[in-house]
């Protein structure tokens, strides 16, 4: 192994001349900031937190790629800093950080590795898989100690560069929608996949932020009526070595290398800072259409992976300070993510990195909220050791932050470690992806549940999970599908996953799909199977949009998108994952899209369908109706025994005259009443419609949705309705006599 002096000499010889030290500059803000110097000239201040480092070199790259190094000699509060006159926006740079190589204690400094600035606002270039990017010798003959042997090869040929960006945008012309949680309808989409095959988006804009900002893309969102797009990761990310070896890429983007940089691969404006302005213009365009922007963010781990993974940024800056090391083996990492490492959010500098990133995207990039991937990993540690702790310093920092406490916060409330499943456990201010809703609704419509106890909770807002601690129904983000898993169409077309194209012998992806192919695996020409599948899609979409809580639609589900049975298409940057807009030319899929839009409009028009408070099941006034009632097919209110009895059919009546909510002037809200009937059984069911005090005598119910019919709407004869097998009805209930209220 080379000595520190020998390594230093070798690195300097390969990198070119070391320039004069920069001016002292300032220790804040972190990152690279272009500004005017003391003499009135342009320049850039650089600041890097690297507490345990012995020295830091700032590396600049000219247009030919030649590297020059500038030793940062100033250090305040563990931050190395300096100002370089003449350095302008568009300049590419990186760091080389010197320090001890002692993997047994977690020290992995290696100045042969060019590092990204954790605060870089733009990134140019991609990570190319190569052994030289690892800080340790991957192919060392003794594999069990390979991670302890330093690799002295220069990594700069294979890693991206940070880019200096000038930001002078004050957002004076932006108008944020500020949609209340209770009125929110989420639409999860991939920037690239949503736009790549859209026929009305110019080819040079497809797959980009500019493509999503195009009027043709926004027109679909507004016709659908969604209030927010939830974007799969747009932070700069890298593809893993094993994917590159198979000629694949990390398409979803859950492998971050830059928490401040918009992913350059989605930019039509280049990668030298143009991606920043393009992203902002996209946000402005969506805001102008009344649509909020929520980012899926990955702060639980980084693309550096395990101890033999690439050294791209944090590992080379201060490994032990940024990552959770294994308690009894500091050479390795505590891995609660399944991705090789876990960020250590117990530490102030990591909390600062995460919250600085969140504030940057919320202020300077204009976004409206965040969905946190594997959020339980962010709450591990603190006073409770390695357990998930809902009083964790990170959660406390977010909840008291005057900006972050006002944006939308969504947790994926689990990780892969012990005790990591935390659905219903996050504190107030947080909404959560509710996988119990997903599983219950899937099971009900495929006929896998003997009774309807849990379905009642899920339809009415999951009070069993979220009523504690002052939370509301909108803490539950309801979904039937998401990016991870089957599409809605595949959910009713496949019994098994078909992930062979991923190159992992179909071992990847979950086997717990709770799907049903309805008699044929995959696509079929059988008209009866296809008709039943389409009806089930209507059932699932209607159930989602008529449940209390915040619905999330996965892009393309509204018009029959398929991934051919692939339930883990994270590496498929091709037609498997891209939306096929030609499906809208087919009547059945177009009608599904129209039904989805009609249900969203209905939800928006009627507050009884999106209530802010949990149902009580009691009357708001003496002698009045309860706000919620459940019925058997006999038209009788369900008893305790009915909830435990095997059944595939029930009714839920939402009273618009007994709502507990008030308007801004303090007046009680009033709305229509609705009766939702669900029959997951094969056989038709005659359902007796509730009479007084639920509906006016001799007045007809009005059918608004019948998933078993080709046309909907119109009066429903008084008395009973025939529910087709595997079908859902939504009826408007006639108003009862006000004297009975």
From TrEMBL:
Span list, region Disordered: 1-26, 500-522
Any one Gene Ontology BP term: glycogen catabolic process
UniProt KW GTP-binding keyword: no
InterPro entries the record matches: GH, GH13_cat_dom, GlgX_Isoamylase_N_E_set, Glyco_hydro_13_N, Glyco_hydro_b, Glycogen_debranch_GlgX, Ig-like_fold, Ig_E-set
Pfam families on file: Alpha-amylase, CBM_48
Compositionally biased tracts (Basic and acidic residues): 500-515
Cross-referenced CDD domains: AmyAc_Glg_debranch, E_set_GDE_Isoamylase_N
Residue ranges constituting the Glycosyl hydrolase family 13 catalytic domain according to the UniProt record: 188-603
Keyword Cytoplasm: no
Superkingdom of origin: Bacteria
Coiled-coil blocks: none
GO MF, one example: amylo-alpha-1,6-glucosidase activity
Record's keyword terms, sorted: Glycosidase, Hydrolase
PANTHER family noted in UniProt: GLYCOGEN DEBRANCHING ENZYME
The family this protein is said to belong to: Belongs to the glycosyl hydrolase 13 family.
Xref: NCBIfam families: glgX_debranch
The protein, known as: Glycogen debranching protein GlgX
Organism, as annotated: Streptomyces kaniharaensis
Gene label: glgX
